[in-house]
């Protein structure tokens, strides 16, 4: 890696009489996964240098030299001119060691007033702030795709389901907008988590704070944090912000998984409600006719990974005493995997959804069969004065009769329907028509066309506000 300016000494070597065993170095090393934290570690180190200079702990000249050296280390990493090895354990020690090459003994002043405990805490918070901002932006794109699909298919009718049984006719757009609501709640959860991870722990040192007269508010401002941690012990041992963010990720993946299940079902020959674009499907190595919905299936499968990561982090943290424990080294692969997986799933669905083709005739035929207007018969009877429980029973008997006749309710004659109640009149057929069944569900949030159009309009306004927000501007670089 570098000329060994540290004589292979560990930062704690003064206490030990024997060097660390090579097997121990390999076992304890985290560089294989925490190397991706380098930009945040360097950003934190640059802010720390400026804070030390402001406090008079190092001179402005020394701070300037350290900062220039850190920028060179960053360039070394980005140009792949810096190797990683177990001897230096983690990204913090690699950067410090490389800095020695650029600025010599001055590099040894970098760690004044801090510990790797608060150093890694600030690194992960910076990383998660950026990732969470990206997730929120990605969800905005997915929500836009769903709203666009709902708007394009505003006149498409389909069966609504409970227990995976046909229940009542609905607009396809109404069903799609249900997922918009789910992902909107996900955005709110991530935004809420973002506010709690936006706390700067640097300056807490190992656990008790530092003796140097640093201005932590100044450091927080340099790093873009809105708050500083109140308790140094909590600051270095807190992983709540990880668990909260990963919990939000797990819920979001469950929403994606539910959507995936429906896309798999709807694209099957048994349903034929939709067709997925060829670009988002694969074939079979042995059956030439196959078109497999691999993207929804993989998203459904990856949900287990994210939930597993969250469970593993819960188990990691559940019995740890304060403050920092080496167990916590294992948190980073879990959070990295969760964020990477979720972002990939959101991104691929933002691309897949605009290319969904809906088979309008098939969905309408399905909505017209299966006695989905039975509730409307009961409602009509209740409106005519029959108690609803009695009307429900009456409609149920009508359905049983229609099944025997191999007819739908609206296909029965007026005399056949009147056999179940003399209240029934000839306007019952309008009440049982598909258009009426949908249009009469005008309660706020219902499937009536005017309701869904209004919901789409509100969603578009909300998304315009999101796209103009500071979060999205920051992520897109506007």
What does this 3D model show about the protein?
With 478 residues, the chain is mainly α. It is 60% helix and 4% strand. The protein contains 20 helices and six strands.
Put the structure in a nutshell.
With 478 residues, the protein is mainly alpha-helical. The protein has helices at residues 22-28, 31-34, 38-54, 60-78, 91-103, 116-152, 172-197, 216-223, 232-237, 240-266, 294-317, 331-352, 360-367, 374-383, 388-405, 414-418, 428-432, 434-439, 449-467, 470-476; strands at residues 157-162, 165-171, 199-200, 227-228, 274-275, 357-358. The protein has 3 domains: 13-112, Fumarase C, Chain B, domain 1; 117-205 and 226-359, Up-down Bundle (Fumarase C, Chain A, domain 2), CATH 1.20.200; 366-455, Fumarase/aspartase (C-terminal domain) (Ribonucleotide Reductase Protein R1, domain 1).
Tell me the strand order in the biggest sheet: 1-2
Question: Helices and strands: which structural class?
Answer: mainly alpha
| Average of pLDDT | 94
Please bin the fraction of helical residues: 55-70%
Tally the helices: 20
Largest sheet: 2 strands, antiparallel
**According to CATH, what is the class of the largest domain?**
Mainly Alpha
Architecture of the largest domain, CATH level 2? Answer: Up-down Bundle
Order of helices and strands: HHHHHHEEHEHEHHEHHEHHHHHHHH
Strand percentage lies at: under 5%
CATH homologous superfamily caption of the largest domain: Fumarase/aspartase (Central domain)
CATH topology of the largest domain: Fumarase C, Chain A, domain 2
Give the strand tally. Answer: 6
| Inertia-based shape | elongated
Question: What separation lies between the terminal Cα atoms?
Answer: 38 Å
Radius of gyration: 31 Å
The total number of structural domains is: 3
Which stretches are poorly predicted, pLDDT < 50 over at least 5 residues? 1-7
């Amino acid at each position: 890696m570098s000329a060994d300016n540290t004589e292979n000494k560990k930062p704690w070597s003064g206490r030990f009489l024997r060097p660390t065993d090579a097997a121990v170095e390999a076992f304890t090393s985290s560089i294989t996964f925490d190397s991706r934290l380098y930009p945040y570690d360097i950003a934190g180190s640059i802010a720390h240098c400026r804070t030390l200079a402001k406090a008079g702990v190092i001179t402005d000249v020394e701070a300037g030299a350290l900062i220039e050296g850190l920028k060179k280390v960053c360039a070394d990493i980005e140009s792949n001119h810096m190797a990683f090895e177990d001897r230096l354990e983690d990204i913090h020690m690699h950067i410090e060691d490389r800095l020695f090459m650029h600025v010599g003994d001055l590099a040894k002043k970098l760690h004044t007033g801090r510990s790797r405990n608060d150093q890694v805490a600030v690194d992960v918070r910076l990383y998660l702030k950026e990732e969470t901002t990206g997730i929120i932006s990605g969800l905005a794109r997915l929500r836009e795709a769903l709203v666009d699909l709902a708007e394009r298919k505003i006149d498409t009718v389909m069966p609504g389901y409970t227990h995976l049984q046909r229940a009542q006719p609905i607009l396809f757009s109404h069903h799609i907008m249900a997922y918009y609501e789910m992902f909107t709640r996900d955005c709110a959860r991530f935004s809420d988590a973002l506010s709690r991870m936006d706390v700067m722990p640097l300056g807490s040192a190992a656990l008790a704070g530092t003796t140097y007269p640093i201005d932590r508010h100044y450091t927080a401002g340099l790093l873009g944090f809105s708050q500083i941690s109140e308790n140094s012990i909590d600051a270095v041992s807190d992983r709540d912000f990880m668990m909260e963010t990963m919990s939000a990720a797990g819920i979001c993946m469950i929403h994606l998984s539910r959507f995936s299940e429906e896309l798999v079902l709807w694209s099957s020959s048994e349903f034929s409600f939709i067709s997925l674009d060829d670009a988002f499907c694969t074939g079979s190595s042995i059956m030439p006719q196959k078109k497999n919905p691999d993207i929804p299936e993989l998203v459904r499968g990856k949900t287990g990974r994210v939930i597993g990561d969250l469970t593993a982090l819960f188990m990691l943290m559940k019995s740890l005493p304060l403050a920092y424990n080496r167990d916590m080294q294992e948190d980073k692969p879990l959070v990295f995997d969760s964020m990477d997986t979720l972002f990939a799933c959101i991104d691929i669905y933002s691309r897949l959804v605009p290319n969904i083709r809906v088979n309008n005739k098939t969905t309408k035929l399905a909505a017209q069969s299966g006695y989905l207007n039975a509730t409307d018969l009961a409602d009509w009877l209740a409106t005519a004065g029959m108690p609803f429980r009695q009307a429900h029973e009456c409609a149920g008997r009508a359905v049983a009769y229609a099944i025997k006749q191999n007819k739908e309710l609206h296909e029965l004659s007026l005399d056949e329907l009147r056999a179940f109640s003399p209240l029934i009149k000839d306007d019952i057929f309008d009440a049982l028509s598909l258009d009426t069944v949908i249009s009469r569900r005008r309660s706020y949030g219902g499937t009536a066309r005017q309701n869904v159009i209004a919901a789409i309009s509100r969603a578009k306004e909300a998304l315009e506000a999101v796209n103009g927000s500071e979060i999205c501007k920051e992520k897109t670089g506007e």
